[in-house]
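Example 3.2
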Amino acid sequence: MGLETATYIDDLDSANPVSTDNVSQGDDHIRLLKSTIQASFPGVTGAVNATHTELNTVADNAAEGTFTPTLLAGTGTITLDTLYDTLSYTRHGRLVHIC
């Protein structure tokens, strides 16, 4: 079987290499693994010492999105000017940046 193609980690097929591949193709598979890891983590230039729990916590606490703001005034609703009808936000833990 020929070498699979992949750009990122999630493109890799866990069934490869198959047992019928020539042992001489092993270096090609290793190169493919290296290139997908480097493409998946381009900003990592040194050791990463976080545990899987710490990495999952960071991922779970970060969010981005948009929303339509409204202001409540007494019994009525005030809608902001169309210039501000959709705002975006980035949340990291308890800190939220709105723009």
